[in-house]
Amino acid sequence: MYAMWNLWHGCHKISEGCGHCYVFRQDGKHGIDSTVVHKTRNFTLPVQRKRGGSWRVPAGTTLWTCFTSDFFIDEADAWRDEAWDMMRARPDLQFVMVTKRVHRVAACLPRDWGAGYGHVTLFCTVKNQRQAETRLPVFLALPLQHKGITCEPLLEAVSLRPWLDGSIGQVVVGGESGDDARPCDFDWVMRIRQECLECHVPFTFKQTGACFIKDGRTYRIARKYQMPQARKAGIDLPPLPGWNVL
């Protein structure tokens, strides 16, 4: 079972992959300023209870955490300790987060973190080779029990091989959605898949994106078909047992 926990909302664009951010795109349709970071009504979701006293989010649920912001954004520093407290109170849930701010993670971990909470998975976003070379050495040095890499949107050919060291539990690759989507080439996808295959790392092709290149031909793919078409390719490498697939 999966659910969303967007405990705060709003972000700032800091790298190439942010150019056509889906959060900014959706907020823009409703006149919302995406650069204003604020708590949401769902801030306390993991510890909310029903009238009968049972948890509102049942045990065994995977919570995709902070997908309309970045858990490690500096505006949320005052709220993050309470967020860690809620995660600590619910070891029966799995929390999955994605960050592009890996340089802030070490300073934002709770005091009792140790080698990491066993029910928290963190993905580092990598959209091009420069980001791989800048972010992944920092990411691999972090004390995390569960680490993944997401190349969404994949903007160019990228080699991840130097960082597929056995601590990475999953690599996720996908193209960019939206009317102004930048192209994603299937050859780039297959290159990363081959590296994952050779390094025995699970691999997921999540979505084609709206502008997809295959065998030199460019395809415009409607949003509703982008994930099904990726699955139809049949190139995923199975996840590890118990892994929280992104």
Give the secondary structure arrangement, pairings included.
Layout: E1 2-5, E2 8-9, H1 22-29, E3 38-39, E4 62-65, H2 77-89, E5 94-99, H3 102-108, E6 120-125, H4 129-140, E7 146-151, E8 168-174, E9 184-185, H5 186-199, E10 203-207, E11 211-214, E12 217-220, H6 223-232
Parallel strand pairs: 1-4, 4-5, 5-6, 6-7, 7-8, 8-10, 9-11
Antiparallel strand pairs: 2-3, 11-12
Q: Going across the biggest sheet, name each strand in turn.
A: 1-4-5-6-7-8-10
N- and C-termini, Cα separation: 13 Å
Main beta sheet: 7 strands, parallel
- The gross shape turns out to be globular
Q: Helix- and strand-based class?
A: alpha/beta
Query: Approximately how much helix is present in the residues?
Result: 25-40%
* Percentage of β-strand residues: 15-25%
Please tell me the overall pLDDT: 95
What's the number of extended β-strand segments? 12
**Count of helical stretches:** 6
**What is the N-to-C succession of helices and strands?**
EEHEEHEHEHEEEHEEEH
Query: What Rg is obtained from the alpha carbons, in whole angstroms?
Result: 18 Å
Poorly predicted regions are none
